[in-house]
Amino acid sequence: MNEIERKDREYVLHSYARNYTNFIRGEGARLYDEAGKEYIDFASGIGVNSVGHAHPKLSEAICDQASKLIHVSNLQVIEPQARLAERIVTLSGYDMRCFFGNSGAEANEAALKIARKYGETHFESKRYKVITLKHSFHGRTITTVKATGQKEMHKPDFSPYPAGFDYVEDIDAVYEAIDDETVAVMIELVQGEGGVQPFERAEVQDLAKFLRSRELLLIVDEVQTGVYRTGEFLASQVYEIEPDVITLAKGLGGGVPIGVAMTRLKEIFAPGDHGSTFGGNYLSTRAGLTVLEILEAEWEAGALAERIEILKRTLDRTAEAMPELFTESVGLGLMRGLRAVDAEVQGRILTRAFEEGLILLKAGRNTVRFLPPLTITREEMDEGFKRFEKVLASL
Ligand code: PLP
């Protein structure tokens, strides 16, 4: 056991099943560990490193901002926060306002507070219940873990949990679950942690229309799907829906913690209703602005669409050619998965890939997940696929 592993084991709480490889440097879609071994990163720190590692523009912007101002407080106006809010709203095409936090869970907490206040103030009698899906993932705080529909995550160790969540198997079942206390439905358009499972466009559009007709809210958790991950700035745009609340996090800061809840209920919060000490500070919002500048250019040039096509084609072909290992190729944009025949195959692939210098993720019970940086080059992709082929051939 080396020094870092010993310190980690001794002084860090054991809430993760850690791999003790010590990465010391990254460049683009490549990572290097302390022994000098090179890895192709098809995981992006679980969808966070949207512009890859050590992107020169992002590094420069962060250094420049750090040398001027990192933080003041939300009691003052914060120039890059105002600019980023404008950028996000403009790119979305929705008439909304933003609240800034530091993570996906915090963004979802803000979304839930928006729903609660709307339910308290908009109807004749109080509405507070939020319907979520059984394979969803919305975070790890005591409220967002309860919003997460996966029952096994509601461990009794941490009870009691906040009331006010109903769970349904799929979108079809939402309609029956709505009662006179329901205020909102919260969904991911592509369930990330749940198995990279996109919903049907028509069923999402129908749901959005139905909720709007009842004045109930549609909250779309775009913590993983947002910021160009599915090919457009938001997955909500791919689905051509108009949600009431959208949450963002992961890819927006390129690794600098940031979370956003944006809503068309522009007057929902009064001063004092919600807040965050760090949320939307100079550093994270300057990083967000720079990430958006980089990704917007990639999107406009058609480079993102090209990468999406290559990843999809490669994974579709792999699934077709190897039915003994995979049942299907799933996902949207650069958020894709290969459904393994079982959890054992999934586990073997992930372990062998890491040995070969390829970082992949798991999702759901048996999905091998691909979340490469959105700026990944053709050469980096080809090298990653070469290593993946080697892994599959060795199983
Ligand atoms: N929502 C979704 C869809 C996610 O994928 C995640 C994280 O994986 C979260 C929320 C929680 O985000 P965070 O870990 O930043 O709190």
User: Which class of secondary structure composition applies to the elements?
Assistant: alpha/beta
CATH class of the largest domain: Alpha Beta
Strand order of the largest sheet: 4-12-11-10-7-5-6
Low-confidence stretches: none
What is the CATH T-level topology of the largest domain?
Answer: Aspartate Aminotransferase, domain 2
**Proportion of helical residues:** 25-40%
Strand share of the residues?
A: 15-25%
In total, how many domains does the architecture comprise? Answer: 2
Our count of helices gives 13
Radius of gyration: 21 Å
Helix and strand run: HEEEHHHEHEHEHEEEHEHEEHHEEHEEEH
Number of strands: 17
CATH architecture of the largest domain: 3-Layer(aba) Sandwich
Task: Calculate the terminal CA-CA distance, rounded to whole Å.
Answer: 29 Å
The CATH superfamily label of the largest domain reads: Type I PLP-dependent aspartate aminotransferase-like (Major domain)
Bound molecules: pyridoxal-5'-phosphate
User: Biggest sheet, open or closed, and with what strands and sense?
Assistant: 7 strands, mixed
Globally, the shape reads: globular
Provide mean pLDDT, rounded.
97
Structural features, described:
- By secondary structure, this protein is an alpha/beta fold.
- The chain folds into two domains: 60-300, Type I PLP-dependent aspartate aminotransferase-like (Major domain) (Aspartate Aminotransferase, domain 2, 3-Layer(aba) Sandwich), CATH 3.40.640; 302-368, no CATH class.
- Helices cover 38% and strands 18% of the residues.
- The protein is built from 13 helices and 17 strands.
- The strands form four sheets. Strands 4-12-11-10-7-5-6 form a seven-stranded mixed β-sheet, sandwiched between helices.
- Helix 3 (56-66) runs antiparallel to helix 10 (282-300).
- The chain is globular.
- The protein binds pyridoxal-5'-phosphate.
- Pyridoxal-5'-phosphate binds next to helix 5.
